[in-house]
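Hey, I'm writing a tutorial for new members on how sequence and structure tokens pair up, and I'd like a real worked example in the thread rather than a made-up one. If someone can provide the structure for the chain below, I'll link this post from the tutorial.
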Amino acid sequence: MGVCNTRMPRVQVYLPEELYSALKDRELSPSELLQNAVRAELRRRELLEETDRYLAELIDEVGAPSNGAVARAEALVRHIKAESGTDHPR
């Protein structure tokens, strides 16, 4: 673990006892974990925003999908999720 030479703002985070105990038992750095989680979440949201912009451009270019096309796409997503055993929220 590196030493940070720059001053960073401080935030206070509340954790349930079981998470706090798990961090301490595993000698994990809550600060490092939180920084990584925040970076990952910000990147995830950035990618979702890019996807939304792309889809809007695509709809402008070729038009909105038909109800049938949407239904087929939703059925395909359900099938993929069922096959993979995952259901990740957006």
